[in-house]
Write a structure and sequence with these properties.
single chain, mainly alpha, 7 helices
Length: about 200
Amino acid sequence: MDFKDVQDAWNKETNEKIKLPTNLEKIQTANTPLDKIKKNLKNELIYQTLSVLFIGFVPFIHDFPSQTIVPFYLLFSIFLPVCAYYLIKLLRFYKRLSKITLKTKDSLYETYFDIRLNMELYKTFGFALTPFLTLYLIGMMYYQLSQKVNFQIATVSDSLLISLFAMIIISILAVGLLLEWWVHYFYGKYAKEIRKLLDELKEE
């Protein structure tokens, strides 16, 4: 029952007992962590969109050799729609959060699970970008090696290949750990506050 229902019942001056939702005030305390999630998500959407656009101009900013520009933009043409897909998904999530009014336990549950789902979506976004990072590192290494006199791919030493594989594995692990920390720091700890509140409401 919201304020309008209470007012209507009062105006009718009935003898009916008016029930106020005793947990409404507690439910609305979830607005604080929710506002922090919305603020962080809004900032990320802006920064990530600008970052994607900036990456598109990197060859000109850093004067890439002419022979590397075509491979770079071939890779960028795959990178761009992947980023657009996930950023649009996160933008829709942000718009849903902006329209939420927490008045019932059900709306709080729905919001919590939506946050958890989109935290996983965010991690998936990060992992989807990992192959691009890996290909970029391989491309940079190949370009540097190709500048050496009489370089041939068949003459690459085993130790160099091992170093390359190690670099790829370390990069992927580093991205995974960074993503876990990032999502927890900007979203996870606030989602835990909402989960704690839900547990408290369940006990009542």
